[in-house]
Amino acid sequence: MSDTKIVAVDAMGGDNAPGEIVKGAVEAVQTRDDIKVILVGLQDKIEQELEKYTYPKAQVEIVPATEVIETAEPPVLAIRKKKDSSIVVALKLVKEGKADAFVSAGSSGAVLVGGQVIVGKIKGIERAPLAPLIPTKKGVSLLIDCGANVDARSSHLVQFAKMGSIYMEHVLGVEKPKVAIVNIGAEEEKGNALVKETYPLLKECKDINFVGSIEARDIPNGDVDVIVCEAFVGNVILKLYEGLSSTLIGVIKTGLMSTLKSKIGAALALPSLKKTLKSFDASEYGGAPLLGLKGLVVKTHGSAKSKEVKNSIIQCVTFTEQRINHKIQQNIGADQEVE
Amino acid sequence: MSDTKIVAVDAMGGDNAPGEIVKGAVEAVQTRDDIKVILVGLQDKIEQELEKYTYPKAQVEIVPATEVIETAEPPVLAIRKKKDSSIVVALKLVKEGKADAFVSAGSSGAVLVGGQVIVGKIKGIERAPLAPLIPTKKGVSLLIDCGANVDARSSHLVQFAKMGSIYMEHVLGVEKPKVAIVNIGAEEEKGNALVKETYPLLKECKDINFVGSIEARDIPNGDVDVIVCEAFVGNVILKLYEGLSSTLIGVIKTGLMSTLKSKIGAALALPSLKKTLKSFDASEYGGAPLLGLKGLVVKTHGSAKSKEVKNSIIQCVTFTEQRINHKIQQNIGADQEVE
Is residue A337 pLDDT above 50, yes or no? Predict the structure, then answer.
C-alpha cells in the first residue's frame, strides 16, 4: 500500500453542499485507507453532517473557513476579497504542501482563477486547462480545454495536447494516447485560423500520437483519447454533451411512459437500459483536473452528489502517485523541479 | 392555390444519389401540385430512376449536366473547373430565374461557394450563413451559422440574428422569435472577444427579440428560436447534435437487446419510443437554407434519403411564397430590389 494522500475538499461548494460533499468524503475514506480528507468550510455545519456517519475518524479533519464564495460572484474579486472562504483556505493548503490536492464543486470561475493565482502554474506552462473526461461508446476521452480562459493561441493548444497525453497515459493507463484537434472537416486545410495554425505544430510534435482532425460528430465514438480545442469550443462541447444526453434520456423516458403497453415494456427493459445509460453518465468519472498547476486542483459538477465527490477524491490518488505534475514539468515546462 | 414554384434538384449529389434524390423529387410532386422539379444531372441515370415511378409528368423536367463534383474536391476549384456539373448548372438556373430554388445533398463546400459566387449575395449582406433547424424538446430552433465561412466578425453575427428572425417568423410562423447568442455563461461579461463585442450590438437591435446568452447545455430545451454563433462553433454544435443523438439511440438499442427480458420489454415499448425519437430526427425538418442570397439554395444532409429530399423541396415553397429574400433585402440589405 502506498503513502496516504491528503485531499482538501470544499465542503461549502456546489448545489448540494455541505450534505452531499461531506457524504462523498466519508464514502471515500470508507473505501480507501490511503486517503485523508480535509473538509474545509463552516465548522458547525460540517460537524453536523459528519455526525450522521460512522467512519475512520483519523482519516477526516476539519479546517474551518468562515466565508463562502457564491457561484454568481465575479471570480477574480471573490478570490481577492474572501480570504477566509473555503476555496481560498483550501487552495492555500495545497500551495503550502499541507494537502496534495483540492476538490471543489463550487464556483468554476473562482476555482480556476484561485488555482492559477494561489497554487500557481508550473514554470513554462502558459495556461492551465480544465480537462474533463467525457463518456463515449468505447469508454472515455479527455476534452481539453473546457475552462474559462478563451481565445487561446496555438502554443497553448500544443501544451494542452502534451498535458492531455501525459494524463491519459499515466492516470487512465492508455498506451500512446491518440490526440486529435476539433475541426469542421477531416482535411488539413480546413478549419479556422487557430486550427490551421495549430495543426502543423501538432503534426511536428514527436512526443504525442497526433492522429489529425476530429469532427464533433465523431467525438461520441471514442476513437481518440485526447480531444484538443480552445476553451470556448470545449465548453460548448461539454455543456451540449451533458444537456443533450439528459434531454434525450428524458425524451425516451417520456416515450416509454406514453402508453400502457410501453409502460409494461419499460418495466421489463429498465434494468438493462439503466446499466447501459450509466456508462454515459458523466458523474461516474469524477471531476475535471485543472492541469499544469504546481498542485492538483479538481473541479466537479456544481450538481455533484456524493458518488461524484467520492470518485473525484479517489481520482486524486492516482494523479498524485503518478507524479503527473512532475511529468508535465519535465516534459513541457521550463525544466525545473516542481515546488 | 398559389403559383407553381420551380425547384432545381441536384440529382447527382449525396451518398444516395441518384436513387433517393429522384425518389424524393417524385414524392414531392406526388404530394403537391404547385411544385415543378427540375432534376439536374446525368440524363440516362435520371431517366432510369424515373421509369420506376408513376407521377405527374408535367411536374418533372430533366436538365442534363455531364459532370459531377465529388465531396472531397476543393470547392472553389471544383466550381470554377466543372462548368457542366449538376451543381453549377442548377445554380445557373436559379441565377437566371429559371428556377426559384436549388436543393442539393452534394458537396457542402461546393454548394456554399457556388451559391455565393453564381447566385450571389443580396446587396448589403456581408456573409451568407447556412442555417439548419435542429430538433429540441419543444420543436425546432434555427442554428445560424453552420457554414464554411469561419472567423466571423460581430457585424456578420448581427446580420445572422436578423436573417434568422425573418426566417423563423415567416417560414416557421413563430411570432417575435427569441434570439440568443451561444456563450459559455449567462452573464453579459462572459464570452470570447467576438461574443463580448457582439452582445451589446444585439441588445441594441430594435428589430429582433434578443433574449441574451444561451449555454450549449440549454439548446436542446428549445427555449429560444434563433441561436446565433460563429460558423466553427455552429458546425461543432450541429455535428455533435447529430453524432451524440445517433450514438445514444444506438447505445439504448443495445441496452434494450441485452437480455431476454429487456428484449420482450423493447418489443412492447418500441412503437411509442419510435414516435418520440422521430421528433429528434433531423431529417424530418428538411435541409438548411443558405440565407442572404439572391435566390434560394438549400443544403440537405449528404446521407439524405427520399423523405428529407422531399421535405427540402416542399420547404422551398413557403420560403419563396413568403418572399424571404425580399424581406431580408428590405430589412437588412442595402435597400435595393432583389434581382
Answer: no
- Fill in the amino acid letter for B136: T
Name which of A56-65, A132-141, A251-260, A305-314 the model is least confident about: A251-260
Q: Provide the grid cell at A165.
A: 497525453
Contact A323, A122 (CB under 8 A): no
Q: In what order do the strands lie in the sheet with B5-10?
A: B60-64, B35-41, B5-10, B101-104, B296-299, B288-290
> Angle CA(A224)–CA(A230)–CA(A236) in degrees, nearest 5?
80
Closest C-alpha among B252, B203, B237, B18 to residue B135? B237
> How far is it, in rounded angstroms, from Cα B156 to Cα A21?
45
* CA distances (Å), origin A130, targets A103, A113, B184: 13, 11, 14
Mutation target to probe the A interface, by most A beta carbons within 10 A, among B215, B247, B277, B281 is B247
B269·A273 Cβ contact <8 A: no
Tell me the pTM.
0.91
Any CB–CB contact under 8 A between B232 and chain A?
A: yes
Between the alpha carbon of residue B12 and those of residues B42, B45, B78, B281, the distances in Å are 7, 9, 15, 24
Task: Give the separation between CA A35 and CA A33, rounded to whole angstroms.
Answer: 6
Contacts of B97 (CB under 8 A, 6+ apart): none
Interface contacts (A, B; CB < 8 Å): 201
E strands, A161-245, in order = 178-183, 209-215, 226-228
Q: Which residue has the cell 456544481?
A: A302
Exposure string over B283-310, b if 16+ CB within 10 A, otherwise e: bebbbbbbbbbbbbbbbbbbebbbbbbb
> Mean pLDDT highest for which of B78-87, B269-278, B310-319?
B78-87
Say whether residue A76 is in contact with chain B using an 8 A CB cutoff: no
- In this complex, is the C-beta atom of B77 within 8 Å of any C-beta atom belonging to chain A? no
Are the C-beta atoms of residues A280 and A122 closer than 8 Å to each other?
A: no
Task: Pick the residue from chain B with its C-alpha nearest to A271.
Answer: B262
Instruction: Annotate A6-45 with b (16+ C-beta within 10 A) or e (fewer).
Output: bbbbbbbbbebbbbbbbbbbbbbbeebeebbbbbbbbeeb
- CA B84 – CA B78 distance, rounded (Å): 11
Q: Are B14 and B302 in contact (CB under 8 A)?
A: yes
Residues contacting A29, CB < 8 A, separation 6+: A35, A36, A37, A55, A56, A59, A60
Here the cell at position B289 is 437554407
Give the phi and the psi of residue A30 in degrees, each rounded to 5: -70, -30
DSSP for residue B122: P
Q: What is the mean pLDDT of residues A162-170?
A: 95
Residue B50: helix, strand or coil by DSSP? Answer: helix
Please tell me which residue of chain B has the smallest CA distance to A74.
Answer: B189
Task: Kindly report, residue by residue over B270-298, the tens digit of the pLDDT.
Answer: 777 777 777 777 666 778 999 999 999 99
Q: Report the relative pairing of strands A288-290 and A296-299 from DSSP bridges.
A: antiparallel
CA–centroid distance for B9 within its chain: 14
Lowest model confidence (mean pLDDT) among A105-119, A316-330, B254-268, B283-297: B254-268
In 3D, which of A15, A3, A4 has the Cα closest to residue A300? A15
CB atoms A266 and B264 under 8 Å: no
Q: d(Cα B101, Cα B5) in Å, to the nearest integer?
A: 8
Cell numbers standing for residue A119: 497554487
**Residues of B with Cβ-Cβ distance to A191 under 8 angstroms:** 150, 232
Q: How far apart are CA B73 and CA B81, in angstroms?
A: 11
